[in-house]
Specification:
Elements: H1 18-27, E1 49-53, E2 56-59, E3 64-67, H2 82-95, H3 105-117, E4 123-127, H4 130-145, E5 149-153, H5 172-175, E6 198-201, H6 206-215, E7 220-225, E8 228-229, E9 233-234, H7 237-250, E10 253-257, H8 269-274, E11 280-284, E12 294-298, H9 300-303, H10 317-322, H11 340-377, E13 383-387, E14 390-394, H12 404-408, H13 412-424, E15 427-428, E16 435-436, H14 443-460
Parallel strand pairs: 3-15, 5-6, 5-7, 7-10, 10-11
Antiparallel strand pairs: 1-2, 2-3, 4-12, 8-9, 11-12, 13-14, 14-16
Length: 469
């Protein structure tokens, strides 16, 4: 059946944000492509923001939006939460500085608090981003096992370093057979031969995964996985259970990348949701109150690969002389690791989430149900996909998605146009992104979003929708 002509499929004619356009043109004089991160760009030009407060952000043209992006999920308490402001001010006032460059007590108190929520974090190292966290986790697995290949899943993103910059958004024609995906590079200038060290696995297809893992068992240091792909497509419980069993059987380190799911798929993260104890976990975003922050935690014997007591301080010549073989030592350092101001913000974030997370998750589920009912009432095939306080609106006739290839067969173009129309209504997310709910998304805010959604659906004529074959 042919799809009816509708306004959402036409290029939006409302994109007149003169100050954002001016900012973008000026930015291109100084910044490659006018942005400091490729993810911030979308056509015809990204919206430049100047202020955020609670559930709202305001752009340089003075347009006000309800924010559903929330820093790609980092802002679990919304913008400028008073508790975080107070924690930062108190830290500065009491400590007298924002940076020691030495050990300090919050490094221990925050680690203890994380461990209470995620017991798998037997030892912890701090980093400055989720990418740094996943990179350190992979290096720890290399050091611990002595092996130099890793396996990642098709459609999963783990940051911007070479071993994991494969098969994140491959075309289906490039990606190879579904049961044995090919490694497809996602960036130029990836070192030749890296693809030989990165094995691609099919998500939620456990028998195919087992076949591949057994084939490479003597070479694989680790399997790294987003337990909830992209923050919204969950693994089945059976898949996660069997993945844990087979990696343990084969002596392969299992790394949970919980940068998106940590404190969003429950306070115990995805590992609590699945009742799985990974060998290593990478965290970020939420736990630093939205500041640059990351954590790697896991088994004592693996984490101790990074202990300075094992080898040497790279910058201490005397210790370096004493090291029998520097290649036996995993060096990890960073002036800002365990930044006291960020850990103060992290404590404040946990203070709030420990009291308000469950209510936020309850409102999220009610919001999802209201959206599904509304789309259905207007005859539009749609499902919401996700867990905890993050989910995505997926325009499809399917009842569920299991992996990246399923998602690519949904009507992504129509979802993108829907997002542009929601921007016109004053509801912000980067087109095609998941929705990240915050504690400040109260009933009144959700009602406003639903009213905007209904106005878009009344105008749009979205159905019938046909998935791609």
């Amino acid at each position: 059946m042919a799809m009816r002509e509708n306004s959402l499929l036409r290029t939006p004619d409302f994109w007149h944000k003169e100050n954002s356009k001016r900012c973008y043109e000026k930015a291109k004089e100084f910044l490659p492509g006018g942005v400091t991160a490729n993810i911030k760009h979308f056509p015809p030009y990204p919206i430049t923001m100047k202020r955020g407060e609670g559930a709202y952000i305001v752009d340089v043209d003075d347009n006000r939006y309800i924010d559903l992006l929330m820093g790609y999920g980092a802002l679990a308490l919304g913008h400028g939460h008073q508790k975080i402001k107070e924690a930062i001010e108190e830290q500065f006032q009491i400590d007298g500085t924002h940076l020691f460059g030495t050990p300090h007590e919050k490094e221990v108190s925050f680690a203890k608090r994380l461990q209470e929520h995620m017991p798998s974090l037997e030892k912890i190292r701090y980093t400055n981003s989720g990418t740094e966290a996943t990179l350190l986790a992979v290096r720890l697995a290399y050091a611990y096992t002595g092996k130099k290949k890793i396996a990642k899943f098709e459609g999963h993103y783990h940051g911007g370093f070479e071993e994991v910059l494969y098969s994140i958004t491959p075309t289906i024609s490039e990606a190879g057979p579904g049961e044995n995906p090919h490694p497809v590079p996602e960036s130029s200038e990836i070192e030749a031969g890296t693809d030989e060290d990165t094995v691609i696995l099919p998500f939620n297809q456990i028998e195919d995964c087992k076949n591949i893992l057994r084939r490479y068992k003597d070479e694989l240091a680790a399997v790294i996985v987003e337990p909830v792909q992209g923050g919204f497509i969950p693994a089945s419980r059976s898949f996660m259970k069997q993945l844990r069993e087979v990696t343990k059987e084969l002596g392969i380190v299992l790394i949970f990348d919980e940068v998106k799911t940590g404190f969003r798929t429950g306070l115990q993260g995805a590992q609590g949701f699945y009742n799985i104890k990974p060998d290593l976990t990478a965290l970020g975003k939420v736990i630093g109150g939205g500041f640059p922050f990351g954590v790697v935690g896991g088994k004592d014997e693996i984490m101790m690969e990074s202990s300075p007591n094992k080898g040497k301080d790279l910058f201490d010549a005397q210790t370096a002389k004493q090291a029998a073989n520097k290649s036996d030592v995993l060096f990890h350092s960073g002036t800002y690791n365990g930044h006291p101001m960020i850990l103060a913000a992290g404590h404040a974030t946990l203070d709030v989430l420990e009291h308000e997370y469950h209510d936020t998750e309850k409102r999220t589920n009610q919001f999802r149900k209201a959206l599904e009912d509304m789309f259905s009432a207007y005859g539009y095939p749609m499902i919401t996909v996700g867990t905890g306080t993050i989910f995505s609106v997926v325009l499809t006739e399917k009842e569920r998605l299991i992996n990246y290839r399923d998602f690519q067969k949904t009507n992504l173009q129509l979802r993108k146009q829907f997002d542009y129309c929601m921007l016109r209504e004053g509801v912000y997310t980067k087109p095609l992104n998941r929705y990240s709910m915050a504690t400040v998304h109260g009933d009144d805010v959700i009602e406003s979003i639903l009213q905007s959604t209904e106005r878009v659906l009344q105008r749009g004529g979205l159905s019938p929708i046909r998935d791609k074959e």
